[in-house]
Design goal:
Blueprint: H1 12-47, H2 62-85, H3 89-106, H4 113-132
């Protein structure tokens, strides 16, 4: 199927690049939002450290989860900002951070199975977005 190329001089390569840029924007927004959410989760974990019992992996040590989520949240925000600035290395850093976000959400699979799976699915979409777009084609 062919489509008409606009008169302003856009080529098929330009249109493909704009579509890829949308994926990068999607990934940056999702990672930035996830980073803020992880930081809020960390503050919750620091506050509730003595009240929650039988957390899956580390029993009653929510402080560990708090520090983990705080680190992952900050790194997700750094990855999102780097993507928005257009750094090429940020794509691969974003893939690594999305994998860490997926793994850290799976730590709660027995406590919150639906939410853990939704977080993992969103991380997989971010990985797809970052690996699908190749800036060298533009």
């Amino acid at each position: 199927m062919s489509y008409a190329v606009p008169e302003q001089g856009y080529s098929e390569r330009d249109m493909r690049g704009e579509r890829g840029a949308g994926w990068i924007l999607f990934a940056a927004i999702v990672m930035g939002t996830a980073g803020v959410m992880r930081i809020l989760d960390a503050f919750w974990a620091f506050d509730r450290d003595d009240t929650l019992q039988d957390v899956l992996l580390f029993k009653d040590n929510l402080t560990f989860y708090g520090w983990l989520w705080l680190a992952v949240g900050i790194l997700l925000i750094v990855a999102a900002g780097s993507l928005l600035r257009g750094a090429q290395w940020a794509r691969w850093f974003g893939v690594i951070m999305a994998m860490l976000a997926a793994i850290s959400s799976m730590l709660w699979i027995y406590q919150y199975p639906i939410w853990s799976m939704v977080n993992t699915l969103i991380a997989v979409l971010v990985i797809y977005a970052l690996t699908n777009y190749d800036a060298r084609e533009v």
